[in-house]
Amino acid sequence: MSSLLTAGDLAHEQEVVWLEDPGRLDYVRQALDKTKRRNTKPPYARDGRMVGYAVLDAAAEPDPDSGLYKRRVLFVLPHDRDSHPDGVYREGAPGEAVDPRTIEPGKPGAKTPRSQHGPAAITPA
Predict the structure, then answer these.
(1) Which residues of the chain fall short of a pLDDT of 70?
(2) Largest CB tally within 10 Å, which of 1, 15, 51, 73?
(3) Is 17:55 a contact under the CB 8 Å cutoff?
(4) CA pair distance 82, 52, nearest whole angstrom
């Protein structure tokens, strides 16, 4: 599914559950995954690690064709800045990266100087 999320994609989010402290991450990747349940920790089948996920409200309905719920999953990959601060994303960020400090239920999150350019972008000279 697309990783460029809109508020409409997230309309039934009730809560965002963090598995790691979002304050320690410059950015997280986000995507919609299809899951069997709306309110438990979803399975994770990517490289890297899941750092958070959304819980859907009781009004959320599964897709009529698949019977699965579309839920936001927040994750980082092995080559992301948190694991490799001098790596490929020392400056810059992947397209789906947003600042975890801007994520709230029902809101996709925003790109900020920290998420897009790294800690050097916000450190005073």
Answers:
(1) 1-3, 119-125
(2) 73
(3) yes
(4) 15
